[in-house]
Amino acid sequence: MITCSAPGKVYLFGEHAVVYGESAICCAVELRTKVSVEKSDENEIIIESILGRTGLDHDTHPYVSYVIEKMRRFADIKGVRIIIESELPVGSGLGSSAAVTVASIQALNHLYECGLSLEGIAKTAHEIEKMVQGNASPTDTYVSTMGGVVMIPQRKKLDLINCPIVVGNTHKFSSTKELVGNVAKLRSDFPSVIEPILYNIGQMSILAEKLVSEGDYKTIGKLMNINQGLLDAIGVGSAELSSLVYAARGSGAISAKITGAGGGGCMVALAGENNAEDIARAIENAGGEAIITNNTKEGVRLESLHG
């Protein structure tokens, strides 16, 4: 059995705007999805996760099902058992779908000796996300594959974020496809209003590129907080997210904003050296689940060749 893992991610800047070609800055976090694969003698496809045990199933396991179909371009996949374990909640804005897609591709890549490069994995994973979600950005799949801090669409690696990252989960599920569709309709209905908002979200990423290299988290935090206001303006906020965002800021976070599609899911806060625990407590007191994590330079990786 071969096991591979891929990290989740948080956005510092750029969600939704990146779908329209604007810049985003995204960083991999040390919360991972592990995918284990082995060949099956019965020529049967088996996919197992917290969601249940299925065969090829585009409703319960859409991403992994499409991975198997895509990887059949590179290998003769007849029978395979795939086991998924994840630290990433589904529909949370932490890139759970990208992580399971990337880890699955790499695991099958090793199992069947397909010879896919990291760039090839990222490209194939993005194709699969587009099949499931519609107008999906390449950000999540690229960052999950490569790790680190990445500026998209330039695919430029930036310095690591050297401060604690606190994630707050509302446990309210949100559909990326639905939220992206809502923003698209708003943009279509009010282009003169919405397009400048998306442009300005992208401009924050460009301003922040230098700030990341300088480690100027205070200024990065100011821009992240502005980004949060613009995300609210395009309708992807929620009462639950706002509650966690303001709880984190009130307890001393450098910044706090939505990460991902919004509408529910998670927010992210940058913490100082000594107040991550305080921020986590404030998030939990406001009704969320808090996770303290860090940026990681590692993307998809091989965990084990033997289980």
Automatic annotation (TrEMBL):
The active site is at D140 (proton acceptor). Residues 210-286 form the GHMP kinase C-terminal domain. Keywords: ATP-binding, Cytoplasm, Isoprene biosynthesis, Kinase, Lipid biosynthesis, Lipid metabolism, Magnesium, Nucleotide-binding, Transferase. One of its GO terms (molecular function) is ATP binding. InterPro entries: GHMP_kinase_C_dom, GHMP_kinase_C_sf, GHMP_kinase_N_dom, GHMP_knse_ATP-bd_CS, Mev_gal_kin, Mevalonate_kinase_arc, Ribosomal_Su5_D2-typ_SF, Ribsml_uS5_D2-typ_fold_subgr. Its main location: cytoplasm. ATP binds at P89, V90, G91, S92, G93, L94, G95, S96, S97, A98, A99. Residues 63-148 form the GHMP kinase N-terminal domain. Its EC number is 2.7.1.36. Its cofactor is Mg(2+). Coiled coil: none annotated. It is found in: Cytoplasm. It holds the Pfam family GHMP_kinases_N. Pathway: Isoprenoid biosynthesis; isopentenyl diphosphate biosynthesis via mevalonate pathway; isopentenyl diphosphate from (R)-mevalonate: step 1/3. Catalyzes the phosphorylation of (R)-mevalonate (MVA) to (R)-mevalonate 5-phosphate (MVAP). Functions in the mevalonate (MVA) pathway leading to isopentenyl diphosphate (IPP), a key precursor for the biosynthesis of isoprenoid compounds such as archaeal membrane lipids. Homodimer. This is Mevalonate kinase. It comes from Methanolobus tindarius DSM 2278. The lineage of its organism: Archaea, Methanobacteriati, Methanobacteriota, Stenosarchaea group, Methanomicrobia. The gene is mvk.
